[in-house]
Amino acid sequence: MERLQKVIANSGYTSRRKAEELIIQGKVSVNGEIVTELGTKVNYEDIIEINGEVINKDVPKEYYLLNKPRNYICSLSDEKQRKTVVSLIDTTTRIYPVGRLDYDTTGLLLLTNDGELANILMHPSNNVEKVYIAKIEGILNIEELKKLKAGIMIDGVKCYPKYVKIKNKDIDKNTEIIEISIVEGRNHIVKRIFEAIGHAVIKLKRERYAFLDVKDLSSGEYRTLSIKEVKRLYNLKSK
Predict the structure, then answer these.
(1) Are 218 and 65 in contact (CB under 8 A)?
(2) Nearest to 213 by CA among 113, 110, 73, 126
(3) Spatial contact of 194 and 200, defined as CB atoms under 8 Å apart
């Protein structure tokens, strides 16, 4: 017997967190009965439906690493008819992005139908490191660097970068390129960190996610993850 949200995640339908939301919203039924209790346990013989659609519990897991181009949305579909990152992957399997990159943000993005792994990577307790390269307006001064290293308050919660490195500065154009490492997963967090100290982000790219990078991939290119890489990602779960 497994928790309902875990079975849904393992089916590849969506992440465990999203599965929990669907259960609470009354969109999930088990053997024809609507279930809204998150602690509900089921087995693999039970018929699970989401919005009337029976989920397939036997879909093979797929794992992709994409170098996301600018002007793609991290969603399965978009009411504004914008291009989605899923459309870049050649598969008929229902996959979804692990976390999000903004429409104008580029770089490393993972996509999978493995909801259990997605939950591990996005759960705050696992402190998965993400490294970004940000081009900002203005030049950071010593006091601002100290503020970054001491932690920036965002919506009442402090965000502590693991490190901040100045990669390049252009005095004439009044811009600076910064490498910043965080374990935060909140929306727009890097942009909000710099905006909190008075610097707008002009360009943003995610260079690394845990031990993975996109150095060998051009913008828009992707590759599948190896079994060894998937196991290493699973091992990021806190003991």
Answers:
(1) no
(2) 110
(3) yes
* 177 in Cβ contact with 169 (< 8 Å): yes
Angstrom distances, CA of residue 227 to CA of 111, 154, 198: 15, 37, 43
Q: Which two tokens stand for residue 82?
A: 């914008």
Tokens of 54: 């029976």
Question: Tens-of-pLDDT digits for all 239 residues of the chain?
Answer: 888 988 888 787 887 888 999 999 999 999 999 999 998 999 878 899 999 989 877 778 999 999 999 999 998 777 788 899 999 999 988 888 998 899 999 999 999 988 889 889 988 899 999 999 999 999 999 999 999 989 999 999 999 999 999 999 999 999 999 999 999 888 899 999 999 999 999 999 999 999 999 999 999 999 999 999 999 999 999 86
Q: Is the dihedral of CA 97, 101, 104, 105 positive or negative?
A: negative
pTM: 0.81
125 and 98 Cβ atoms separated by less than 8 Å:
no
Residue 102 bears catalytic tag: yes
Among residues 46, 102, 104, 155, the one annotated as catalytic is 102
What is the Cα 85 distance to its own chain's centre? 12
Alpha carbons 85 and 140: distance in angstroms, whole number: 33
Domains of the chain: 2-54 (3.10.290.10), 63-124+215-234 (3.30.70.580), 129-209 (3.30.2350.10)
